[in-house]
Amino acid sequence: MLTTDQKDALQEIANIGMGQAGEVIAKVLNEFVTLSIPRILILQPNLIAPALQRMVNSELVSAVRQAFHSSFRGEALVLFGLQRCADLADLMGYEDDIDHATEMEILLDISNILVGACLGGIAKQVGVDIGFSAPSLLADRVPIKEMMKVNDASWQHALLVEVNFQLEQRSFACHLVILMSEHELKKFAGELDRFLESL
Amino acid sequence: MALSVLVVDDSPMARKMLIKALPANWDANITQAGNGIEAMAAYRAGEFDLMFLDLTMPEMDGYQTLEAVRSEGLNCIVIVVSADIQPLAQERVLKLGAAAFIKKPVDMQKLEPILHQFGLLD
Amino acid sequence: MQAEDLPHLLDFVVERLEVGVFVVNSEMRIVFWNRFMAIHSGQHSEALLGRNLFEAFPELPRKWLEKKINNVFVLKNYAFTSWEQRPYLFRFHHNRPITGGVDTMQQNCTFLPIKNTQDEVEYVCVTLFDVTDTALLQLQLNSAIATLQVEKAEQQQLMLQLADAQSHLMQSEKLASIGQLAAGVAHEINNPIGYVYSNLSTLEKYVQDTFGMLAQYEQAEAAIADDAVRAQLKATREKLDIDFLKEDLRALMEESKEGITRVKKIVQNLKDFSHVDATDEWHFADLHLGLDSTLNIVSNEIKYKAEVIKEYGDLPEVECLSSQLNQVFMNLLVNASHAIEERGTITIRSGQRDNEVWVEITDTGKGIPAENLKKIFDPFFTTKPVGSGTGLGLSLSYGIIEKHHGRIEVQSVVGSGTTFRICLPNKQPIELQK
Asked: Which of A170, C69, C333, C336 could anchor a disulfide with C363, C-beta 3.0 to 4.6 Å?
């Protein structure tokens, strides 16, 4: 689906996107973020949920989804394990003890910041404009396999780019996943080719 | 005499991008390594004047490599080239003995003054 | 349209859009405020321009909103709020003053960075969408879905109960027919057992008489003159070993009597238990008799698991439906033996206090966890594998004891055993006796 060169380029571009997202979230939360090497997989629909499960070390997850549209389209997911984000509330400007809706709002905000910075960084490197839908709550403490019901998927393969963020001083971690169908992946691969030619 | 330069990054693409950003008629012999272990092996095989070092790498990452360079007392200028651009990351590598920190993607305009500063470019 | 008309047209569109639009600079001063915002906030653009957003609207959640807008300036990225988590930014009246349902306009907001030519964010534009209608529908939908889910769960519960009830029905029908069969057999056996028993008594007497007669003959033997006849008698006596025969005959009679007594007792127990001939009427009965006959019925089930220790106290006869109480005793005894995993003891104690009698059945079994203790008298509650227990035994027992105006109590320690205690009044309240 991707040539070695394309995959290598994507790996590096994703790495830079992740770095920018990491910097942004570090700035917002005033915390050091530990980054890991992005993982790139091309998967059939039924393997998406197990792949996500392996990434998130938690039975139940909360997840935010956000669509992106550029010369290629796809969805970004940000997955959160079951850590409470109460201690982030203060950093995000909340004054009182937080209720459930506020907790969800914090997840939406953090997701929006990560997705915007990471995909924004990727789009900027390959030289395309990108826009985002409003983030929406995909799952609130549900098992991953229930969240990712892709039985009736109209695609056979999807690109999965996985980026992990872990706050060094707090027990907070989240995982950003970029998903693109094979059809959109072809368009994205075209952008990668143009980028490679420009080198 | 030509400078000997070691470029350390797990991504061949990243190494290619960095090498392309180097000054066009710079007199340098360039060697590449895919992680810290390879870098230290390459150094022992033949010393280098300058090392461009990525931070997030498998096997042995940039921080560990910096520590190894320092503990073995290598006489080599290390410039960290990283996608992790948090100010604290920059602070940490400078404390570990890196000479400079450059953000990825590498900007040629910003690289040249740094090379000048360390007398690596005429 | 002329090109120069375009800015004017855009102004008009933004001004009249049915969407709230306002713009602030990095000092949070308002630089644009459209008509939608003016109408709903009651504050007009002219009065607001240049003013700090939070001074003009002190009711806004300042710390949070300032951070949110600042992030857009710093991160150069969109931000959003959604009504589901944050119902509104500004407390505006909604567009349903009559049909109602919510108290404030529900809003989705977008925070849009407006950059200058140096790629820095100079302003943040906030758009505010009235999503009250969608929100109301969504809330209705959510509550409908929640109701459906509750109903679905209830239905599943009912289906389970139905399946349980069916298996219980089959079980109780089976029990009933076994009971009838047993009663029939008991009745049929009772007659022959009766005459065999009375015949045995007669037989014993006849044997005694015959032996008496024989003894007299033996004494008279010496008086027989004919030597040949005497020798023949002696030879026959020695051949038959009459002394042993006499001994053995007595033992055989004894054993047969004992055997037939046991058969009689078993038949009586069966009859007592299945109460073929007991009328379902209140009468005074000895609970120890009921306990003993029940123990005999279930002894096969118990004897490999537990030793039964009886510590009966002094009990008066109690006004009861004895056959129903026997059901309760059987239930508790069988449960007690099931609770014992390897081997243990079942202790039956009884006693009286004031105008009450009590019976306790204690096992040394595995005990009942606290979370199950309060459910054990519920119909259909069972910890036995599906199909092997009906989950009705204890709830039926509870019903029977209640009918007797008594109490059934349970104490259990996991790992060391369980005690059921039944307390019954000696006499039922007056109205029952009519």
From this structure: C336
> How far is Cα C17 from Cα C19, in angstroms, rounded to an integer?
5
CA triple C272-C274-C277, angle to 5 deg: 65
Residues of C in contact with A101 (CB under 8 A): 84-86
Q: How confident is the model at residue C429 (pLDDT cuts 50, 70, 90)?
A: confident
Q: Are the C-beta atoms of residues B98 and B117 closer than 8 Å to each other?
A: no
Q: How far apart are CA C173 and CA C162, in angstroms?
A: 16
C partners (3+ CB pairs within 8 A) are A
Distance CA A33, CA A30 (A): 9
Any CB–CB contact under 8 A between A33 and chain B?
yes
User: Which pLDDT value is given to residue C277?
Assistant: 47
Residues of chain A in Cβ contact (below 8 Å) with chain C:
24, 27-28, 92-95, 101-102, 104-105, 108-109, 112-113, 116-117, 120, 132, 134-137
pLDDT tens for B55-90 read: 988 888 899 999 998 888 888 899 999 999 999 999
**pLDDT beyond 50 at C276:** no
A-C Cβ pairs (cutoff 8 Å, strict): 58
pLDDT of C133 > 90? The answer is no
Q: How far apart are the first and last CA of chain C?
A: 104
- At residue C210's C-alpha, the angle toward residues C209 and C211, to 5°, is 90
Closest alpha carbon to C23 in C86, C105, C113: C113
Q: Which of A129, A135, A154 is nearest to A62 (CA)?
A: A135
> Higher model confidence: residue B26 or residue C312?
C312
In this complex, whether A and C touch, counting 3 or more CB pairs under 8 angstroms, is yes
C426: CB partners within 8 A, 6+ apart: C316, C318, C319, C352, C355, C356, C357
Assign C129 a pLDDT band (cuts: 50, 70, 90). very high
User: What contacts B2, CB < 8 A, 6 or more positions away?
Assistant: B27, B28, B29
C108 interface with A at CB cutoff 8 Å: yes
In the structure, what pLDDT confidence band is assigned to residue C279 with cuts at 50, 70 and 90? low
| Token pair for A24 | 């942004």
Q: Which of A5, A12, A22 sits opposite B84 (nearest CB)?
A: A22
* pLDDT, tens only, C155-166: 999 998 888 777
Residue numbers in B near A125 (CB within 8 A):
105
pLDDT for the residue A85: 64
Write down the pTM of the prediction: 0.63
Under 8 Å between Cβ of C153 and C159: no
Helices (H) and strands (E) in chain C, counts: 12, 12
Nearest CA in chain A to C75: A24
Mean pLDDT, all residues of chain C: 85
The partner residue sitting opposite B84, judged by closest CB among A9, A12, A35, is A35
* In the predicted structure, residue C349 carries a pLDDT above the cut 80: yes
